[in-house]
Amino acid sequence: MQITPSILEKVGDTPLVSIAMSEYENINLFTKIEAYNPTGSVKDRAASYILRKLLESGEIDQETTIIESTSGNFGVALSAYCKYYGLPFIAVVDPFITRINEMLIRANGARVVKVNNPDARGGYLLTRVQQVKDLMQEIKNSYWVNQYENPLNARAYYQSLGKELCFQIEEIDYIFLGVSSGGTITGVSQKIKENFPNAQVIAVDVEGSVIFGNESRKRFIPGIGSSMKPKILKNALIDDFIITDEVATVKACHELLEKHNFFVGGSSGSVYAAVQQYFADRKLSQPVNVVTIFADRGERYFDTIYNKGWLDNIFKIMRETAISA
Ligand SMILES: Cc1ncc(COP(=O)(O)O)c(C=O)c1O
Which of 53, 67, 104, 309 is exposed most, by the fewest CB atoms within 10 A? Predict the structure, then answer.
């Protein structure tokens, strides 16, 4: 009998599941269910790998305070793995953090520092980064994970998610990956291209995110998109990108639950909507294997994507913005 010493050692080896795309000819769609990771998202891979490598290399020690600006899954994952490794953790968040994520981060004993003043662009990104820098000044032995620039973030996905995919499937023709910090797509694309040089890597982003050159606009669904261009993306091997909107994301989440029994988070809806959008008018003469990642589970979105009152409100805001634009 093989016993695992801690639940947090069970990162990865997530199932690859097929989704029937009966309305589309010649598409075999497969998705990695990342909610099977110990803290419930793809971010377990980055958090566990980065901390382990930093401890092994001596770049951090048991006394180092880990700091990161994050309102989402990365904060939840870091809080759990920092606790596991006995490292103090400070999550710098803003008022947009969901109630559930804040509770999860606090439940793992992390300190939460919430910035309240918007930056010159009206968002909180720059204020959060300044807060991180102030904390680094204050706490002598501290380390800023900085997922948008840290090469270990991409390396984590090369070593785990990318490798697993290469073992789990015989051929990949297309892979669709949501982008936020860029860690997943950078690491996975590098690994996939080594094994399947002809695979087409399609990045998925949402309207209002600046990653692929669009204008910054208020976004409502966390986990996908960014209001700055992640530096680690320069090493990503991306063939094409597709921009979905948040209405399509919400509809896709609900369709995945109704038709396919997947209860997933926002970015999973975005990538599913992107696959539908991409192949809507492409005729395929032979079957192709299309792979994607469902990065987390629906429970974290009970207050948002799966809450009728919240949906009515954001759809109203979107309609008003569209009329005044
Ligand atoms: C739900 C979800 N999907 C997708 C991503 C994108 O991953 P990455 O930051 O590696 O680009 C994240 C990252 O936080 C996420 O939380």
Answer: 309
Q: Which of 126, 138, 156 is nearest to 67 (CA)?
A: 138
Range of the domain at 78: 43-144
Average pLDDT of 174-199?
97
**pLDDT for res 224:** 87
Q: Are residues 177 and 293 in the same domain?
A: yes
Q: Is residue 139 assigned to a domain?
A: yes
pTM: 0.94
User: Which residues are 201's β-sheet partners?
Assistant: 175
Inside any domain, residue 325: no
Q: Probe ligand 1: pick from 37, 41, 145, 294, max atoms within 8 Å of CB?
A: 41
265 three-class SS: coil
d(CA 169, CA 293): 14
pLDDT reading at 197 higher than 50: yes
Residues 33 and 47 both lie in one domain:
no
Q: Taken in order 287, 195, 13, 105, is the CA torsion positive or negative?
A: negative
Average per-residue pLDDT in the chain? 93
What pLDDT, on a 0 to 100 scale, did the predictor assign at position 325?
41
Nearest atom in ligand 1 to the alpha carbon of residue 46 is: 10
What are the tokens at 243? 């921009």
pLDDT of residue 322: 60
Alpha carbon of 273 to ligand 1 centroid (Å): 16
Indicate whether 114 belongs to any domain.
yes
Phi, psi at 81, each rounded to 5°: -75, -30
**Mean pLDDT confidence for 12-19:** 97
Kindly report, residue by residue over 215-242, the tens digit of the pLDDT: 888 888 888 888 889 999 999 999 999 9
324: pLDDT strictly greater than 60:
no
Q: Does ligand 1 lie within 6 Å of residue 73's CB atom? A: yes
Q: How far is the CA of 268 from the centre of ligand 1 (A)?
A: 10
Does 218 fall in a domain?
yes
Q: Which CATH number belongs to the domain containing residue 220 in this structure?
A: 3.40.50.1100
